[in-house]
Design goal:
CATH architecture of the largest domain: Alpha Horseshoe
Largest sheet: 2 strands, antiparallel
Order of helices and strands: HHHHHHHHHEEHHHHH
Low-confidence stretches: 249-269
Mean pLDDT: 90
Number of strands: 2
Strand order of the largest sheet: 1-2
CATH class of the largest domain: Mainly Alpha
Amino acid sequence: MTAPDQAVGELRTSLAELGDPEFARALQRYFPGGVQALGVRSAEVAALASRYLGANPSPAEVRLETAEVLLHQAEFHEEVLLGFALLHTMVKRSLDVSLLDRCRSWLEDVVSNWAQCDDLCLKLLYPFLCGHPDLIISTQVWIHSPSPWARRAANVSIVKLIRRKIGPEVYELPRSVIFGNALHLLDDPDPYVQKSVGWLLKAAAQSHSCEVIDFLEEHADVMPRATFRYAIASFGPGLRHQLLALGKEADRGHPQPAPPPPRRRDAGA
């Protein structure tokens, strides 16, 4: 069994060998603040993790330690994604509630962009929470984090769990969590947190359209325009037009989020 430090050295070397400088330059357009990237596509990152784990089977605690070391040594965007990829296949059954504290720590100390945040939420937290539905509401406390990525994750980690069949039961996320998160983060200064509020409300509208409309009508005068537009994206044209009329003043006095980056498989997201 390879020691975590040695494993991390091998993984970082293998990842660097896959780097494409031209693709690394192309990635910059998805990150307004820039990103330190090797230029490895996300599918290649996942494939490297799969190959490594197939050739080096190890207990869950060793894989977790390896991922932890890699994440805290990471210098490049793809190294963070690789750390998460090492854990993807084991989170649902092999890890306990302590993973939530680890995820919050990674969001606050390691994650540095929206793609890493969403990768953690959708590839680690989502399958973990599906295996532990009693813990789903635990991420709500993250809305109070000083880190914008943890605050974003409080929303992104639950967008697929608003109403979801888990095993033989249909899980319904408490509406107090959905609208509590949205209300608390409504005036958050970070554009990517704002985008997550819109995303959460858009997802909630699939199951709770009347409540979402009521929320939008009540807060239209204070909700940033871009957040408002994203929240109503799933409604029909007529209803969108009516709601936009309510929110026409919503962008005054609020910083505007950057346009949402395209969701491409090769964009590191």
